[in-house]
Amino acid sequence: MVSQTQLKGPDVFARTFAADDKTLSAIAARLEARAKHSFFQQVVGEYLSALKLSGTESVLDLGCGTGVIARMIASRGGHIGRITAIDI
Q1: Mean pLDDT of the chain
Q2: Residue 3 falls within a domain, yes or no?
Q3: Are 22 and 28 a contacting pair, CB within 8 Å?
Q4: Helix and strand tally (H, E) in the chain?
């Protein structure tokens, strides 16, 4: 496993609690843009399909960022279970 100290570049998501509004806005914009990419949509779609959710489960999304995946789950037809998305 790689630790944060071994990485060559800073992890911009590691200290978002200390970021200013401009930086947080840039991070959020990037997360939302990435979520629209066809590769991301395909990978997450395949993963959610593999989970075979019945629609009644409660889902907890920890470290959800802007909540993209939680929203994808909610938008899948028939999901009536609770979805909780938490981030800093």
Answers
A1: 86
A2: no
A3: no
A4: 3, 2
